[in-house]
Write a structure and sequence with these properties.
This protein is mainly α and about 475 residues long. The chain folds into three domains: about 120 residues, HUPs (Rossmann fold); about 120 residues, Serine Threonine Protein Phosphatase 5, Tetratricopeptide repeat, CATH 1.25.40; about 170 residues, DNA Cyclobutane Dipyrimidine Photolyase, subunit A, domain 3 (Orthogonal Bundle), CATH 1.10.579.10. The chain has 22 helices and five strands. The chain has a five-stranded parallel sheet with strand order 3-2-1-4-5, with helices on both faces. Helix 1 links the parallel strand 1 and strand 2. Helix 4 runs parallel beside helix 5, helix 15 packs across helix 21 and helix 16 packs across helix 18. About 45% of the residues are buried. It binds flavin-adenine dinucleotide. The site of flavin-adenine dinucleotide (FAD) has 27 residues, from helix 11, helix 13, helix 16 and helix 18. GO terms for molecular function: deoxyribodipyrimidine photo-lyase activity; DNA binding; FAD binding. Pfam families: DNA_photolyase (PF00875), FAD_binding_7 (PF03441). Belongs to the DNA photolyase family.
Amino acid sequence: TPILLWFRRDLRLSDHAALHAAVETGRPVIPVFVRDVLVDGLGAAPKWRLGLGLGHHATALEQKGARLILRSGDALEVLQALVKETGAGAVWWMRAYDPDSVARDTRVKEALKGQGVDTKSLAGHLLFEPWTTETKTGGFYKVYTPFWKAVRSRDVAEPLPAPSRIPAPEAWPQSEALADWRLGAAMRRGAAVVEPFVRLGEAAAQGRLGAFMASKVAQYDEARDLPWTDGTSCLSENLSLGEISPATCWHAGRRAMEEGKPGAETFLKELVWREFAYHLMWHTPRILTGNWREDWDAFPWNTDDTRPEVIAWQRGRTGIRFVDAGMREMYVTGRMHNRARMIVASYLTKHLLTHWKIGLRWFEDCLIDWDPAANAMGWQWSAGSGPDATPYFRVFNPVTQRDKFDPRRAYVDRWIAEGQRTPGKDALAYFEAIPESWGMAPADRYPEPIVAADEGRQRALSAYENRGF
Ligand code: FAD
């Protein structure tokens, strides 16, 4: 009987434990993607990017003799219907770790099992299952460095090869059309502006990894902090949809380390930051929805997201160039350099005293590399309310940060057109991407800071001290 292979955020053929195991059985394999409430609830950019990823993955499956069957509805009902239609005896998938997916998958597993369907969920979205790393006293890690020390020497299985052919069923079930799903409909900004920055699918992801290991990793230690260089792997976009497995990245990093490339260990450490985010989300899912340190609930965060200060932050018009450059980079490319993510998050939560959830939601809407665990950890780290966070009183100064990390202003000039006689194409692309209703033009005067670097620091510190910390 056929095996239903339920794809989710694992849009690849190589190092895919469930697909590999299914093909090994020699039974027909029917790949399925279900557009359920979790898909409908995605932010605009991640949903649009998912649509591109699905189209690409469907083609990759076709080249192996298979088809990606698309269905909408409640995941359990869809899978039950497909079991009935196809006579499948098994439903296999790759595990997810966010609380909503876990609840859904548990429900699906129990119900299908009850009906005698063989269900299997396999590991591969992470290097290490989040419950397998324990402190000496049996708890979970709340600090990164001991977590890194605990995992760095653990074995990671070598990546599995892609199947050369996927056995097909006698007849394919009906599929909905991807175009009818309109997964890009909520993109406020011009998708055509963002699209050139997308690197779609497994081969592109492998290409990114190869290029990084060939020419960037050796300088990664320094270059990763400089937003004007192209010094990082940019793999987060592909990792977020599983277009490449973390194990594939890990082994490439290990090989580079063995070859003596200096930045390789730092790259492995960054991959472990991703693991740490999942470890935290698994053990404390509240990290997604509220202050991880609950005493922060008393902090006077401003929660009004209609304030002009918040709008200026979202639109890259705070008058603080490093902040505005980061926000515009995200709007045009769907990504933002990590240094800029830290600066814009610090400015929103400290200088503007705004709740990190407002920033988290804006990122969730704008990032093509959106990841629930990394985004929540990043925001709570920046705000000071998370585990192992930067202390609240350590307020990033966005002006001195720019002097340090963008001394020649290459990054801010790349993204901010106002005030430049001949702005470059990326700075101009921003104005093609934004809705007309924002009423911004490249020839506008660049604004004065809405909250200056020093003034905001003082405001943040007194709010913090008044709370009795
Ligand atoms: P590289 O430097 O090449 O690193 C390799 C990989 O390691 C990345 O692809 C990523 O998977 C992982 N990684 C690196 N840094 C981190 C980190 N700090 N936390 C977790 N994983 C990390 N990352 C996301 O993938 N999605 C998000 O939604 C996201 N939101 C963030 C929000 C804030 C406020 C902050 C401060 C950080 C956020 N990050 C997020 C983490 C980080 O900025 C990105 O992972 C990184 O910029 C991706 O670029 P890269 O692939 O070139 O990274």
